[in-house]
């Protein structure tokens, strides 16, 4: 590694907001400078929910413009990471056919049911390693092609042979560089790869009538795709810049930036979603893993992330948005303080319940859920926030227990990264509920991993072990040790009983 490396830009798109970060590596220390931050809100069009890709690409360009201000020609590369599963289709002329659908679009539930009439869950799980969920690309794409009247067995109704599917980070990369490719970690969220392999699952596509021609080449994390296009160089007044595929799934980049010294740990990447799991050499494909809701996705080091996708801070974000519509404005710090003052362990929800899936009046839904399940109804803002945070922590405890069941190993520590680290109450609740220490940080793990994986591609950093050493030297972490163990163990027992009653009712 050279003593001082060039600057890079990391575009990190979350499901609620995005940011463009300039990374600078000086010796063994990485510094991150936020150049541009912006909201990312879906657009409801009648009964359809879309991402505003054109606005997001505009914001990406603003981030690049700000990132090169005062230092023309000194940004060596750029890379994009986003959430999983969503995609866009481009035609043979390179035009986006339509704005990408949001994974919460109501159409996907029907598409999933249609696919499961053709393949049962266990067969699909064994073929792809991905838990069947209505958000998955495989169901989204099947529904889109069905709605378009496309059936690959009828050649007259096939999409143009030059039409390509690109996952969202790959779509950004295409409009940055002109290169069409799908990076492995983002593709691994789709349900369209062979389980645990960097290979499109063509037999599965054939079973479902999905045209194989839609899918471009797969590339590994750390691949230099090309260069920023000449028209963008002129428009943004920047020098030449490489476009790199990193861990294009934000969770994959975030896990690369976990400052772990041990190998046996659980992780929680906590943002709008909370993804909790372990890294393994091979996927877990047992009937029990399927029943418990675990999926298997790719890591930047070629390993597999066996994880459970929880709803994360989505409920809290939606509550905050609703209160703002009602002209009640709270900072995140104020919401945490209100939760601290509220009564402990009054009521719980299942954050991943279908009733909480779509945007809308979340405080009302939480109150109705508690009333319907014969629990105390949280009426105040603090009580609602506390209910959400305690419910998330108890879900993490349940997930840790389930990881032990399917792998035979109970991780002795949890590394939590992402925006949820800002919520110190959630971090402490997680340690309390799980009974194991929680090491929180870095917050901007996705951006840090994105930047450092670019340096690997540029030959400035040796690999994942060196990345984690640099992260340890560059960012502070905080240790949360379990407290109030007896109280939380009692709360977990009630939580388990609550879930069992709920399952019987269903």
UniProtKB/TrEMBL annotation:
Residues 50-255 form the Carbohydrate kinase FGGY N-terminal domain. InterPro entries: ATPase_NBD, FGGY_C, FGGY_N, Rhamnulokinase. Keywords: ATP-binding, Disulfide bond, Kinase, Nucleotide-binding, Rhamnose metabolism, Transferase. CDD domains: ASKHA_NBD_FGGY_RhaB-like (cd07771). The keyword Cytoplasm does not apply. Residues 267-457 form the Carbohydrate kinase FGGY C-terminal domain. The keyword Magnesium does not apply. Belongs to the FGGY kinase family. This is Rhamnulokinase. It comes from Paenibacillus cucumis (ex Kampfer et al. 2016).
């Amino acid at each position: 590694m050279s003593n001082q490396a060039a600057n890079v830009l990391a575009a990190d798109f979350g499901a609620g907001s995005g940011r463009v970060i300039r990374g600078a590596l000086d010796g063994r220390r990485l510094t991150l400078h936020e150049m541009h931050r912006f909201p990312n809100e879906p657009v409801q069009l009648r009964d359809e929910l879309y991402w505003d890709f054109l606005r997001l690409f505009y914001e990406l360009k603003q981030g690049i413009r700000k990132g090169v201000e005062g230092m023309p020609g000194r940004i060596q590369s750029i890379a994009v990471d986003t959430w999983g599963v969503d995609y866009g289709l481009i035609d043979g002329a390179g035009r986006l056919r339509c704005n990408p659908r949001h994974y919460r679009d109501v159409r996907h539930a029907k598409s999933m049911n249609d696919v499961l009439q053709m393949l049962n869950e266990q067969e699909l799980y064994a073929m792809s390693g991905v838990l069947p969920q209505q958000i998955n690309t495989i169901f989204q794409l099947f529904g889109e092609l069905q709605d378009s009247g496309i059936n690959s067995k009828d050649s007259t109704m096939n999409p143009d042979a030059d039409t390509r599917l690109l996952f969202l980070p790959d779509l950004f990369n295409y409009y940055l560089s002109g290169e069409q490719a799908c990076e492995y970690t983002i593709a691994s969220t789709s349900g369209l790869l062979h389980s645990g392999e960097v290979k499109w699952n063509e037999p599965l596509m054939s079973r479902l009538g999905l045209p194989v021609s839609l899918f471009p080449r797969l590339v590994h994390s750390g691949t230099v795709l090309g260069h920023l296009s000449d028209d963008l160089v002129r428009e943004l007044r920047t020098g030449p810049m490489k476009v790199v595929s990193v861990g294009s799934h934000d969770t994959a980049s975030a896990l690369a930036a976990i400052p772990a010294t041990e190998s046996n740990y659980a992780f929680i990447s906590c943002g709008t979603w909370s993804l909790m799991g372990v890294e393994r050499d091979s996927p877990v494909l047992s009937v029990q893993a399927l029943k418990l809701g675990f999926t298997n996705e790719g890591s930047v080091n070629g390993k597999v992330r066996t994880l459970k996708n929880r709803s994360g801070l989505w409920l809290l974000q939606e509550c905050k948005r609703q209160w703002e519509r009602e002209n009640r404005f709270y900072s995140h710090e104020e919401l945490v303080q209100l939760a601290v003052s509220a009564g402990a362990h009054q009521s719980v929800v299942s954050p991943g319940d279908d009733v909480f899936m779509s945007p809308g009046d979340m405080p009302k839904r939480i109150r109705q859920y508690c009333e319907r399940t014969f629990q105390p109804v949280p009426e105040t803002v603090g009580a609602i926030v506390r209910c959400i945070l305690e419910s998330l922590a108890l879900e993490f405890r349940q997930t840790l227990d389930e990881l032990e069941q399917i792998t035979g190993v109970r991780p002795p520590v949890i590394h939590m990264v992402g925006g949820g680290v800002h919520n110190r109450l959630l971090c402490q609740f997680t340690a309390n509920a799980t009974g194991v220490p929680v090491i929180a940080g870095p917050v901007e793990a996705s951006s840090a991993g994105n930047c450092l994986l670019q340096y690997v591609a540029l030959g400035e950093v040796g690999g994942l072990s060196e990345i984690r050493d640099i992260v340890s030297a560059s960012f502070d972490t905080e240790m949360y040790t379990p407290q109030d163990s007896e109280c939380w163990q009692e709360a977990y027992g009630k939580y388990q009983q609550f879930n069992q009653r709920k399952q019987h009712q269903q």
